[in-house]
Amino acid sequence: MNATTDDTILRLTFDRPESMNAFDGEEAVALAEAVESADPERHDAIVLTGEGDAFSAGGDIEAMAEREETPRQSYERVNDTYGRMAEAMFECPVPTVARVNGDAVGAGLSITALSDFAYAVEDARFSCAFVHVGLVPDTGGSYLLPKLVGLRAAKRLAFTGEFVDGEEAAALGLVTESVPSDHLDDRVDDLVETLVARPTETIGLAKQAIHGNLGRQWEDALDYETMLQVQAYSTAAHEDGVAAFLNRGE
Fold first, then answer.
1. Tens digit of each residue's pLDDT (9 = 90 or more) over 201-223
2. What is the pTM of this model?
3. Does residue 100 sit in the same domain as residue 119?
4. Do residues 172 and 205 both lie within one domain?
5. According to the 3-state scheme, what is the secondary structure of 194-218?
6. Within this chain, do residues 134 and 213 fall inside the same structural domain, yes or no?
7. Cα-based distances in Å from 164 to 57, 126, 141, 168, 174
8. Residue 232 bridge partners (DSSP)
9. Are residues 66 and 175 in the same domain?
10. CA dist., res. 12 & res. 5, Å (int)
11. What span, in angstroms and rounded, lies between the C-alpha atoms of 123 and 179?
């Protein structure tokens, strides 16, 4: 995982192109730590991409073949690596943008789903490939896929492991938009420019409200939303926004 900061943009790159940017637990923790380091006071967005021709092939199959562990050890390993990575992205107060420059498979697909925005090249291929190695979707995939693409489409992806291209991924709602490869950077840059112009702290609170209310009933969701709105009232972004609105035309 390569992490660099460009002005206020934290750029994270899967950097194992020889394996289509597959990753093991160590790389999952590295991504988690990088995302956890994001600070709304210093960063306006995170852009996540892959080096070379792929976004990420997901979990390293060779590493899987070498494991010898008890079920309890497996639980602790997955929870402390892929689980930590998923939680870091889901709870990150800074907006995350997946720049999907190529295939996103297995946990690579889950990371795409976890990102707040995802722009993919048209010929990128997506597969919930866990079934091919006798596994269930992880890295938040079993939770997020039905919410993004619907129950039947999620079952289709998870049960068959078939590939869909960027255009179909956009139609399903797995990615925000599918674009020609020579337009990918422009589209991501346009979004990042918009995010830079918005108050990051407010975006973080909105994300917290949306994610936090995914499993709540109406009354509890409304109460949680109100609690976060009260918190937003005390921010400089709210005060500045109100002042700017009132001063228009003066």
1. 999 999 999 999 999 999 999 99
2. 0.94
3. yes
4. no
5. HHHCCCHHHHHHHHHHHHHCCCCCH
6. no
7. 14, 5, 16, 6, 10
8. none
9. yes
10. 9
11. 9
